[in-house]
C-alpha cells in the first residue's frame, strides 16, 4: 500500500521563497484576497483531503477498476463518496469566475492543489481534472447561454466534463477525423460517430457528463480546417436547467489498460446525439487548443505526481529495509544489517527522484504563474508570458513525464523484488505513470511542437525570450563564489542551447527532416537546462538562508541542487552530440531493410 | 496480440559470420556432430515451435494468469500442452550429458534456442529455464546417486526444477536466511522455513518439482559461510525412482505481480520436508553460484527477448499505421496519411530497439561461446574464458535488461495511445520485462559485482583481459578507411575505459563508498563499450560482404552499426562525467534531510 503525505513545506518554498507569490498576487484582480495565510490554509486543507480521503483509495482503485454494464459504469469503492466530499468542500469552483458560481481565486492555485490531488490518486484526479479543461473551453469560447447552462453546473461540480478528440484511426492526426455534425432546424446539431480513449467518459460520480466533441460539418473543408467543436451532454438540460432527457451518446465499452484502472477510459458512440456548436464553425481545433494546453500542463503535473509518490514511498522503505552492510563499515551494528539508505546507489535512486519531483514542482508553478500573468499582467507582461507558455508547455509536458517515469521506475527499483509485487503499490505507480508520455500528445509530438512550431518557426525568438531571462539571472549572480558551481555551468549551457538551436535550424534549411530527427533529444536537452535554471534559483535562495532557522531544509535543498548539477545535468553533453549527428543515420535505412 | 517470428537470418549471422561457430565446434568433444546443417535445422525447428505453439499463448497467459487452489496451481490454457510438445521433441535434453539421457550437444545451443523461446513467451520459458539451472547445479555438484535419481528426470523433462533462495527479509543479503535443515538418522535432512518469490515454484506442467533450496544446518556459522544446499523434491522418489510420497513442501500462495502472470511465483512452506545435501556442508552458496550465473545469463537473454518482441511488433505497426505527412513531402500521396515509419523520430525508436536486440544477441552468443570454451578449451583458453565470463556476466545481465526495458518502452511508444491498451500486447511486453532488472540480482547488485568484486579486486586485471581483445581488434582494422567511423571511437573509448577505471580505483582507495557511487553508471558505460565492440565486429563482417548476395541485409547491418555509434554510444560521454563526479554528492545528505 502506498502512502502519501502532502509536501506542504516544499510547496511553500516554491510559492513564496522561489517565486514570490505575495508580489505575484498583487497584480491579480482578486489578489488582495490571496494572502499567505489563506493560501497556507488552502494547501493544508487540500493536503488533508488528499492524505485522508483519496490516497487510501489509490490501490483499491487499481484492483477493482471500473465496471461496465449495459452502458453504465461503476467507479471503484469510495470514488463516488470522495467526489461528493470534494464537491461539498467547494474545490471545483475555487479558481472560476464568480459570475458562474466560482470563488475567483487565481488559476495558479489550481496547479498547486492539482499536484497534491494527482500524487495522492491520479486516476481519481482525472475526473475533476478533465472537468477543468471543459470549464476553461466553455468559459473562453462558449456563448453566455452555454455558460449559464453548462459552466455553472461544472463549476458547482455536480456535472463533470470530458474531451472527445480521438477516433480509432486518428489521435495525433486529427485532420482525419470522421465524426459528423449535421444541422437541425433549431440551431443544434446531430452528432454521429465513435470516439475512443475518452478519459472519465462515463461514470457514476456526477449527475451529468458534458462532452466536448470535435466533429465535422457537412461540406466542411478537408483536414484540420474543417473541424468544429460541440457541447454534447449525456443528459439534455430540462427547462429548469436540470438533468432532462437522455441524449444519444452511449458508452460502448471500457478499454482494458496497463494502468489508471480507476479512471474509466470509454468508447463513446454518438448516434445522432444533440450537440451545440462552441465558437465559430470550422475553428474547433483552435478552441480545442485551450483545452489541450491546460491538459498538457495537467499531464506534466502527472509526471511530478508519480515522481513524488515514488519518492515518498521508496524513501520510507529505504530507511526501513535492512540489507547488507555499508562498504565503509556497519552503520547499524546492533541490527542484522544496515538500512539500505546507507548504500550510495540507493541514494542515487532516491536523489534522482527527489531532484525530478522538486524540479517538476518548480517548473509547474513557474508555468502556473505565467498563466495568471498572461491573463492579468501589463501588455508587455502578457506578451512575455504567452511566449514563455508557448515554449515551456511542450517542455513541461514531455520532460516532466519522461523524468516522472524514470523516477517511478527508480522508486520501484529501490524495493528490489518487492517492487514488482502489487501489494506495495510501486508497480502501480509505474503503470499509472506510463500513460503520461502517450496521451495529450506523445513525447514525439511535444518535441515537434517545441522545435518545429515554436522555436524554428519563430526564428528562435521564442527561445531567446527564455534564454535572456536565464542570462540575466546568471549575470546577477556571477560574482558570488558560493554559487559558481551552479551559475557557471548554467551560463555555459544556456549559450550552448542557442548555438545548438542554430545548428539544427541551419540543417533544417537544407532538409526539414532534420527537425524530426533532432526533436526528442532536443526537447530533453531543453528540459534539463530548464530544470537547471530553476535548481540554480533554488540554490540562490537556499544559500542565503543557511544561517537562519530551518538550516537543514535549506542545506538539503542545496545538496539536491548540487546532485542535479553533478549527476543529472551532464546528460546534456551526450544529447548535444546525438542531436548534431543529424538525420542521415535515421533516414538511410530503407523501409524493407528494418526486418531481417 | 503480439506476433513473433524467429530471427533465423540474424541468428545465423551471429553464429557463423560473426563468431565462426564451425571452427568453435571443432574444439568441442561432440563438435563433429554439430555441422551447420544440423544447427540450421535445430534453429528452424525450434523457431517453428516458438512461432506456432508458444507465441500464441503469450497474451492468453497474461490474461488468465496462474490459479491457486488448496496448494495446487493451474497454469494458463495451453501451457501444459505446449510443455508436453516441448518434452516430446526432446528440447530439455539437447545439451545435457548422454549419461543422464542428454543429447550431448554444445551448451551454447541452449542460449540460441532460449532466445527464441524467451522472445516468443517469456513467462512460459521460465518453467524450462529454471529447470536448466537446477540441472546444471545437480550435474556439477550432485552425487552420482542424486544425478541418477533427479537429473535423469529433469533431463527427460518429466520433472522440473526451481531455485529457492529468497526469504521475506532477505533477497540480496542471503547471509541472513533462516530456513533450517536438521539431520535425520538416514543421512537426509528435515527442512523447515518459508521461501518467497519462487518462480515456477508450483504448477501442473510436470509430474514432480525438484526444489534446490538454501538452508542452514544446526550450529552452522553465521552469515554466508553457514549456508548449505539441498534437493527437496515435491514428491519423494519411490523404489523405482518414480513419483512416490508427497514431501512436506507446499505452495502457500502465489504472488500478485506486475507481469509474467503466466509464471507461478510461489510462496513455498517447507514443513520438515525431507531434503538431501548437495555438495559440502556450509558451502551451499558456492554451489548456488553455478545456478546463479546461468540464471543471470538467462535473465540477460530476457532483456534481448523483450527488445526483439517489441521491435518486431512496433515495426509492423509503424509500416501499417497512417498518421500525418512526412515533413519532406507526402510519401503515400494516395492514402489519407503516410505510414508513421516515414517520421524520423519513429525510426529513432525502431532503430534503438533494433540496435539493442541485435547487440544483445551478439553479446549473449559471445558469452555462450565462452561457456563452451571454459569447459573444453585448452588450459589457456579455459582461463581466458573464465575471466571473460566473470567480467561479462554482470554486464550482460544488467545492461541487456536495462536496454531491454528501454526497448520495450519504445516499442510501446511507437503505438501511441494504443500501446497502453492490453489488446496490442505491447504494455504486457513492458510489464513482463520490468522484472528482469530486479531478479537474479538487481542492476545495482550486478554493478557492485562488476566494479567491486570483479574489476577492482583483480586490480583491473579482469578488465584488461577484455580491453586487450578490443585493442587488438582495433589495431587489426585501423588502416581500413571504410571502417574508421567505428574503429576510431572504439579505440578511444577502450582507452578511456581503462583510465576511468583507474580513476575510480584510486578514489576507492580513499573511500570505499566511491565504488558504490560509481557502480551503476560504470556498468552502463561498460555495457555501451561492450556492445560497441560487437557492433564494430559486425560492421567489419558486413562491410566485406556488401558486394555479394544479400546486399540489403549487410547494408542494413552497417547502417544499424552506424546508428549505434552515432546515436547510442555518445551516452558514454555523460556517464564518464557523472562517474567522475564522485561519491560526495550522494553521501552528503543526512538521512533526515531527504524528507521535507
Q: What this model shows, in words?
A:
- The structure is a homodimer of 596-residue chains.
- Chain A has helices spanning 8-18, 21-26, 36-54, 58-64, 79-88, 108-120, 122-141, 144-156, 284-320, 344-376, 379-414, 426-434, 443-456, 461-477, 484-510, 513-544, 551-568, 571-580, 584-587, and strands at residues 67-69, 72-74, 159-164, 180-183, 189-199, 208-215, 228-233, 235-237, 243-246, 249-254, 265-278.
- Chain A has a domain at 461-587.
- In chain A, strand 8 (235-237) and strand 9 (243-246) form a beta hairpin.
- Helix content of chain A is 56%, strand content 11%.
- The longest helix of chain A has 37 residues, at 284-320.
- Chain A is α+β, with helices and mostly antiparallel strands and 596 residues long.
- In chain A, helix 1 (8-18) runs antiparallel to helix 3, helix 10 packs antiparallel against helix 11 (379-414) and helix 16 (513-544) packs antiparallel against helix 18 (571-580).
- The mean pLDDT of chain A is 97.
- In chain A, strands 3, 4, 5, 6, 7, 10 and 11 form a 7-stranded mixed β-sheet that branches. In chain A, strands 1-2 form a two-stranded antiparallel sheet.
- The first copy, chain A, is built from 19 helices and 11 strands.
Amino acid at each position: 500500500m502506498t502512502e502519501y503525505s502532502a509536501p506542504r513545506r516544499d510547496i511553500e518554498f516554491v510559492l513564496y521563497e522561489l517565486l514570490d507569490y505575495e508580489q505575484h498576487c498583487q497584480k491579480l484582480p482578486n489578489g488582495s484576497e490571496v494572502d499567505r495565510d489563506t493560501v497556507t490554509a488552502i494547501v493544508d486543507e487540500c493536503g488533508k483531503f488528499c492524505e485522508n480521503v483519496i490516497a487510501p483509495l489509490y490501490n483499491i482503485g487499481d484492483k477493482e477498476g471500473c465496471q461496465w454494464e449495459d452502458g453504465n459504469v461503476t467507479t471503484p469503492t469510495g470514488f463516488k463518496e470522495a467526489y461528493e466530499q470534494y464537491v461539498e468542500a467547494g474545490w471545483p469552483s475555487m479558481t472560476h469566475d464568480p459570475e458562474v458560481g466560482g470563488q475567483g481565486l487565481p488559476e495558479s492555485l489550481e496547479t498547486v492543489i492539482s499536484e497534491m490531488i494527482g500524487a495522492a490518486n491520479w486516476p481519481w484526479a482525472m475526473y475533476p481534472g478533465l472537468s477543468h479543461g471543459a470549464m476553461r473551453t466553455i468559459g473562453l469560447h462558449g456563448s453566455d447561454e452555454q455558460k449559464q447552462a453548462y459552466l455553472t453546473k461544472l463549476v458547482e461540480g455536480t456535472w463533470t466534463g470530458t474531451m472527445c478528440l480521438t477516433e480509432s484511426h486518428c489521435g495525433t492526426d486529427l485532420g482525419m477525423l470522421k465524426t459528423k455534425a449535421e444541422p437541425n432546424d433549431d440551431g443544434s446539431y446531430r452528432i454521429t460517430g465513435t470516439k475512443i480513449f475518452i478519459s472519465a467518459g462515463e461514470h457514476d460520480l456526477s449527475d451529468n457528463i458534458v462532452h466536448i466533441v470535435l466533429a465535422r460539418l457537412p461540406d466542411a473543408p478537408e483536414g484540420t480546417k474543417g473541424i468544429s467543436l460541440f457541447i454534447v451532454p449525456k443528459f439534455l438540460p430540462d427547462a429548469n436547467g436540470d438533468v432532462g432527457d437522455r441524449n444519444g451518446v452511449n458508452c460502448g465499452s471500457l478499454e482494458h489498460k496497463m494502468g489508471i484502472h480507476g479512471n474509466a477510459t470509454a468508447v463513446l458512440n454518438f448516434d445522432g446525439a444533440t450537440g451545440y456548436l462552441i465558437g465559430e464553425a470550422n475553428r474547433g481545433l483552435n478552441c480545442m487548443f485551450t483545452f489541450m494546453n491546460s491538459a498538457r500542463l495537467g499531464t506534466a503535473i502527472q509526471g511530478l505526481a508519480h515522481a513524488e509518490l515514488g519518492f515518498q514511498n521508496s524513501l520510507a522503505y529505504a530507511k526501513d529495509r535492512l540489507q547488507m552492510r555499508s562498504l565503509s563499515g556497519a552503520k547499524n551494528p546492533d541490527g542484522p544489517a544496515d538500512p539500505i539508505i546507507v548504500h550510495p546507489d540507493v541514494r542515487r535512486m532516491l536523489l534522482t527522484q527527489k531532484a525530478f519531483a522538486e524540479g517538476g514542482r518548480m517548473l509547474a508553478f513557474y508555468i502556473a504563474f505565467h498563466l495568471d500573468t498572461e491573463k492579468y499582467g501589463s501588455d508587455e507582461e502578457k506578451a512575455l508570458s504567452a511566449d514563455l507558455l508557448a515554449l515551456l508547455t511542450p517542455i513541461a509536458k514531455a520532460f516532466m513525464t519522461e523524468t516522472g517515469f524514470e523516477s517511478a521506475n527508480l522508486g520501484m527499483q529501490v524495493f528490489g523484488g518487492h517492487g514488482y509485487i502489487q501489494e506495495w503499490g510501486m508497480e502501480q505507480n509505474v503503470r499509472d505513470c506510463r500513460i503520461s508520455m502517450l496521451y495529450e500528445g506523445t513525447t514525439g509530438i511535444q518535441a515537434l511542437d517545441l522545435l518545429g512550431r515554436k522555436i524554428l518557426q519563430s526564428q528562435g525568438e521564442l527561445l531567446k525570450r527564455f534564454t535572456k531571462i536565464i542570462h540575466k539571472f546568471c549575470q546577477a549572480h556571477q560574482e558570488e563564489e558560493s554559487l559558481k558551481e551552479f551559475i557557471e555551468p548554467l551560463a555555459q549551457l544556456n549559450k550552448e542551447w542557442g548555438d545548438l538551436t542554430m545548428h539544427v535550424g541551419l540543417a533544417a534549411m537544407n532538409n526539414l527532416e532534420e527537425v524530426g530527427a533532432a526533436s526528442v533529444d532536443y526537447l530533453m536537452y531543453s528540459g534539463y537546462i530548464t530544470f537547471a535554471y530553476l535548481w540554480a534559483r533554488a540554490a540562490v535562495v537556499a544559500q542565503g538562508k543557511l544561517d537562519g532557522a530551518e538550516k537543514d531544509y535549506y542545506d538539503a535543498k542545496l545538496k539536491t541542487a548540487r546532485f542535479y548539477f553533478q549527476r543529472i545535468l551532464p546528460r546534456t553533453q551526450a544529447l548535444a552530440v546525438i542531436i548534431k549527428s543529424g538525420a542521415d543515420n535515421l533516414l538511410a535505412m530503407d523501409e524493407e531493410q528494418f526486418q531481417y
